Amino acid sequence: MKIGIIGIGMLGNAVALRLLDLGYDITVYNRTQGKTNEVEKKGAHVVSSPKIMAEKVELIIIIVKDAEAVKEISFRKNGIVEGKNNKLIVADMSTIDPVESKNIAKEFQQYQIKKIEIPVMGGPNVAITGKLVMMASGSKDSFNYCKKVFEKIANKVLFLGEQGVANSIKLAMNLQITMLALSLSEGITLVKKSNVDPKIFLEVLNSTYFKTGMSENKAFKMIEGNHDATFTLANLKKDITTMTNVATNLGIELPMISKAEEIYENAMKEGLGDLDYTGIIQYIKKINNIL
Asked: Are residues 245 and 158 in the same domain?
């Protein structure tokens, strides 16, 4: 199967490298073409538009910032729909509003193109080894046709049902990591201000039922001030805003994520957006005058 990948950011680059290493024929497109240099050296074909890509491949994986970017590369000038072929399937790995995802799928249907959504948990560090967790929803036939490819990217692939379901679950999952990053930041700050080594806090936490992968791994980097990004604070802030917008549209109140949006927005104003999302601890330290 010939595969196209649109969006060669950190995750897109890792997914492309993974599939190239496994011998797949990969075509890539990115608005900033310089970001395709690494995968091009590994053998990927670089094209100048999504239209050209759509003429050449059977499966296009989209990994872009938001729903607006998905629509731009899909339906506007030189977009996917201008170059479709009869075999084309579009799989969107972007994290977007479930309603937007449904609407995008309906628009693709007008061009006889099937679209599925495949958001993932895990960053480029696990994508490169094929250990993502993938949530898929949409056309079951299209999913089954592409499943072998998906299983090369993720070691856990879950088909969840109709269009929109996977993105709903993805937002709920990113809500969890938002809260975990904040609770660890505040716990570390509390004990540090109490003149206690934060590593003692983590040792106790990780001996209990309440431990998480974040507390066992990234939390130690948070203490050390190592915030090399696998998923940036800016990207999580974007997802948090999607969560609060979805909540408003559903007519529900999610007070904790609303407060988190305010905190992450303030962190962005402090210039912390390019840090890993766990770099939110730097904002918590700043407002508490901790060096």
From this structure: no
Task: Decide if pLDDT at 26 tops 80.
Answer: yes
Q: Where are the alpha helices (DSSP H) in the chain?
A: 10-21, 37-41, 50-56, 67-75, 98-109, 124-127, 140-153, 165-193, 198-205, 213-216, 218-224, 233-250, 255-269, 280-287
Is residue 189 within 8 Å of residue 282, measured between CB atoms? no
Task: Quickly list DSSP for 65-98.
Answer: SSHHHHHHHHHSTT-GGGS--TT-EEEE-S---H
Q: What is the pLDDT of residue 195?
A: 95
Stated pTM of the model? 0.94
- Structural domain range at position 279: 167-287
Residues 60 and 91 in one domain: yes
Count of CB atoms within 10 A of residue 250's CB? 12
pLDDT band at 86 (very low <50, low <70, confident <90, very high): confident
Q: Is there a single domain that holds both residue 157 and residue 178?
A: no
Mean pLDDT of the chain: 96
